[in-house]
Specification:
- 54% of the residues lie in helices and 11% in strands.
- Helix 6 runs parallel beside helix 8 and helix 7 runs antiparallel to helix 8.
- The radius of gyration is 20 Å and the shape is globular.
- 53% of the residues are buried.
Length: 379
Amino acid sequence: MDTFSLPTKIVLGGKGLDTLLTNVKRAFVVTDAFMMSSERVRYITDRLDRLRAEYKVFSDVGADPDTEMVAAGMAILVDFHPEVVITFGGGSAIDAAKAIVYFASREGKMKDCPFIAVPTTSGTGSEVSKFAVITDRAKGIKYPLIDESLLPDYAVLDATLTTSVPPSVTADTGVDVFTHAVEAFVCTEANAFSDAMAEKAIELVHTHLLTAYSEPDNLEARQGMHNASCLAGVAFSNAGLGLCHGMAHALGAQFHIPHGRANAILLPFVMGFNAGCWNGALTPTAKRYGELAAIIGQGAGSTRQSALNLIHQARRYNSRMKIPENIKAAGVDRDAFESMLTTMAEAALADRCTKTNPIPCSLDDIITLYRKAYDGRLA
């Protein structure tokens, strides 16, 4: 059954946050260590201070939030009994907060209260998605949680929060937006409504990403990317993702490559596989890639060339923003890579994101794609 849902209310700008916090007396804030040490979390806490609200800040969130960290945050939340939960930061902080709230609610240890997400990067779309990714470090596995109850009640989009993001993070998260939109558009659960979100996200990325990277204080470009990230998040939350994300989760879990960067490296290879561009047998997915190419002015006279144009556009983003072109260039040792190859491929095949990939794939297919991506040979 085709469905489309957007239960999260989107609030544009910081003034809307002030309205949401009116009359709040107890707040639980989830952020990361950098936001705490740099005092950027004062964007939230100064507002709470003005309201004379009592609050707890949980800032023990790092890259790739893990099960132990979620359990620690949940214990503090349950003990504090907040009236509102606010998460402030990038995808890791938002995913951590979503998991904390999800497990606390599922175990009956938390009363219903508003859940507000304030993203500080333009990439994950986590503020409007029913996905969260949590790492089991002992097993070296990333688990995608997928449930409607993971969705925040409100998402506050304030592009001024993204202007101080380092260029490398702008690049990684920006291509993550592109990957979300591309995979949502071609996945097996896509429909007309998720397509509309993905198409607009692609258009905004093409218009604003390189400007946001080269001119970090350009608020028009930053807001464009913030909006694109949110739109792509809505698209994949409703439609699903694909093999690129399944492979990126496994690669990141083993070699600690930032998620957006892993997607950026893998996407051209997965797109080539999905389209059938290199074996002479084009798939229906190639036509879908061609439709996206046309949206950004790169359509061609043939389906194959249009699909290739979109694939090469993905490579151009990487090149223009100094993202490694292959896994080797990302610093992964060949022997270590080969020793974990089958383990990664098995994890990617079992990943829930892979289940909505438009083209069925085997373990051998994934192993081949990882090897292609290690050396960076598209054809």
